C-alpha cells in the first residue's frame, strides 16, 4: 500500500460535490488497496453503487439515498407540483429497491418525501432547496447520533477491555464514528486502550477490508480474525463485550445484521460475553413485529465462490446459499445502544420508551 496515501479517516463516506451536481462516495469495493472517490449523477449510478456495496452500511446508505433523491429531484424540469411529485415518487421507489434489509434506506427516502409534501404549496425551486437542506441535516445528524451512541456504549466497557465486532459498523458505514465503533473511537481518544478483534466477515470481507483498515489507520489495537475464530477468543477470555451494528431492529428486539452476527451472539451466550447492538433510532423499525418479518437480502453466488479469489474456489454450478444478513434473537442481546440511551429486555417495552424519550426531547439530534 502507498505510504503517502491520505489516511482513510480523512475522507467523507458520503458527500455532495462542490458543484452540487453529484453524490461523491469512496468506492468501498476497492478498499483497502485503493481509495477511489466516485461521482454519481444518475439514478442508475446511485442504485448500482448501493446494490454493489460501493456505499454500504445502514446509516451511510440512508444518507447516500437522501443526497441521491435530492440530485434526482433537482433534475426534474417542471413547475407543476403534481408532475414533480409523481416523478419524485418514481425515483424514490427506484432507489428504495436497491437493497431490502436496512430500514435506513426507506426511512431516509420517506423523510425526503415528507419534505416535498410539507412544502407542496411552494415553488418547485424552493422545494428543491428544502430537499438539499434536509439531506445535509441528515448527514450532520448522523454524526451527532453516532457520537451519542459512542458515549452510551462507552459506559458498558472499561479501559483495557477486549471488544469483538463483526462486519463494518464503522466510519465507513456512517458519516463519522460509526455505530459499533463509536465507543471504540471515543475510548481511543480518552486513552482506554481497548483490544479490538474484527471478524473478517465472509463473503464480502467488510471486517477485513474495512473495519480492520479504519481501526488500524486510527491507531486502535486491532486483531483480524476469521469468522470461525470467535469461540476461540471468547473461550480464551479475551473478549469482554461484543459490539455490532444492525440493519433493522424489530419491535421485539430481534435484530438483522450482517450474516454471521447470530453465530457470534450464540457463541457469546455460551461464554457469558454480553452482546450489544448499536442502533440509531433510524434503524429501529417499530412497524416490524419480529425478526421473522424482516426481509433478508439474498446475494449472487459468485460473491461466495469466486469474488476476492484469483480463481473460482468452488465447483462450477454448485448450489450456493448467500443471505447478506441474519437475525439475532432478542434473548441473545444484552442491550440495544441508541442515541437516546440503552434499551434492555424486555425490548417490546424498552424500545417504546426510547421512542417516547425521542418524542419528548423534540428530536434534539
Ligand atoms: O452489506 P453491508 O456491508 O451493507 O452490511 C453492513 C452491516 O451489516 C452493518 O453492520 C450495518 O449496516 C450497520 S452499519 C452502522
Name some characteristics of this structure:
365 residues, alpha/beta, 7-stranded mixed sheet, 4-stranded mixed sheet, 14 strands, binds 5-S-methyl-1-O-phosphono-5-thio-D-ribulose
Fraction of residues in helices? 25-40%
Number of strands: 14
What order do the helices and strands follow?
EEEHHHHHEHEHEHEEEHEEHEEEH
Q: Can you list the ligands bound to this structure?
A: 5-S-methyl-1-O-phosphono-5-thio-D-ribulose
Shape: globular
Number of helices: 11
For the report, how would you describe the main beta sheet?
7 strands, mixed
What fraction strand? Answer: 5-15%
Give the end-to-end Cα distance, rounded to a whole number of Å: 38 Å
Structural class: alpha/beta
**What is Rg?**
20 Å
Low-confidence sequence ranges: none
Explain this structure.
This protein is an alpha/beta fold and 365 residues long. It contains 11 helices and 14 strands. A 7-stranded mixed beta sheet has the order 6-5-4-7-10-13-14. The chain has a 4-stranded mixed beta sheet with strand order 11-8-9-12, covered by helices on one side. A 3-stranded antiparallel beta sheet has the order 1-2-3, with helices on one face. β8 and β9 form a beta hairpin. α2 runs antiparallel to α3, α3 runs antiparallel to α4 and α5 packs across α6. The longest helix has 31 residues. The radius of gyration is 20 Å and the shape is globular. The two termini are 38 Å apart. The chain binds 5-S-methyl-1-O-phosphono-5-thio-D-ribulose. 5-S-methyl-1-O-phosphono-5-thio-D-ribulose (MRU) binds next to α2 and β9.
Amino acid at each position: 500500500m502507498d505510504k503517502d496515501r491520505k489516511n482513510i479517516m480523512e475522507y467523507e463516506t458520503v458527500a455532495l460535490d462542490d458543484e452540487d451536481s453529484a453524490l461523491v462516495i469512496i468506492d468501498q469495493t476497492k478498499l483497502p488497496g485503493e481509495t477511489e472517490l466516485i461521482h454519481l449523477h444518475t439514478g442508475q449510478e446511485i442504485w448500482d453503487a448501493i446494490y454493489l456495496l460501493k456505499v454500504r452500511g445502514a446509516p451511510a446508505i440512508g444518507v447516500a439515498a437522501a443526497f441521491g433523491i435530492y440530485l434526482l429531484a433537482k433534475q426534474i424540469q417542471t413547475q407543476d407540483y403534481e408532475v414533480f411529485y409523481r416523478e419524485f415518487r418514481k425515483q424514490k421507489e427506484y432507489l428504495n429497491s436497491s437493497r431490502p434489509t436496512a430500514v435506513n434506506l426507506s426511512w431516509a427516502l420517506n423523510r425526503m418525501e415528507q419534505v416535498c409534501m410539507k412544502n407542496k404549496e411552494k415553488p418547485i425551486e424552493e422545494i428543491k432547496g428544502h430537499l438539499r437542506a434536509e439531506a445535509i441535516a441528515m448527514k450532520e445528524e448522523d454524526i451527532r447520533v453516532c457520537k451519542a451512541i459512542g458515549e452510551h456504549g462507552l459506559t458498558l466497557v472499561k479501559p483495557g477491555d477486549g471488544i469483538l465486532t463483526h462486519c463494518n459498523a464503522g466510519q465507513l458505514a456512517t458519516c463519522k464514528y460509526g455505530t459499533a465503533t463509536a465507543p471504540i473511537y471515543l475510548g481511543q481518544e480518552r486513552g482506554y486502550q481497548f483490544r479490538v478483534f474484527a471478524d473478517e466477515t465472509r463473503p464480502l470481507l467488510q471486517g477485513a477490508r474495512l473495519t480492520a483498515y479504519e481501526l488500524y489507520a486510527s491507531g486502535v489495537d486491532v486483531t483480524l480474525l476469521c469468522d470461525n475464530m470467535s469461540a476461540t477468543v471468547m473461550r480464551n477470555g479475551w473478549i469482554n463485550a461484543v459490539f455490532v451494528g444492525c440493519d433493522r431492529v424489530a419491535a421485539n428486539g430481534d435484530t438483522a445484521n450482517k450474516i454471521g452476527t447470530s453465530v457470534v451472539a450464540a457463541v457469546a451466550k455460551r461464554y457469558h460475553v454480553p452482546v450489544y447492538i448499536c442502533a440509531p433510532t433510524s434503524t429501529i423499525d417499530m412497524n416490524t413485529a419480529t425478526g421473522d418479518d424482516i426481509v433478508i437480502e439474498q446475494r449472487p453466488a459468485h460473491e461466495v465462490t469466486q469474488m476476492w479469489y484469483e480463481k473460482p474456489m468452488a465447483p462450477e454450478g454448485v448450489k450456493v446459499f448467500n443471505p447478506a444478513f441474519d437475525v439475532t434473537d432478542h434473548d441473545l442481546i444484552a442491550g440495544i445502544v441508541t442515541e437516546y440511551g440503552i434499551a434492555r429486555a424486555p425490548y417490546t417495552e424498552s424500545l417504546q420508551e426510547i421512542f417516547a424519550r425521542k418524542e419528548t426531547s423534540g428530536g434534539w439530534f
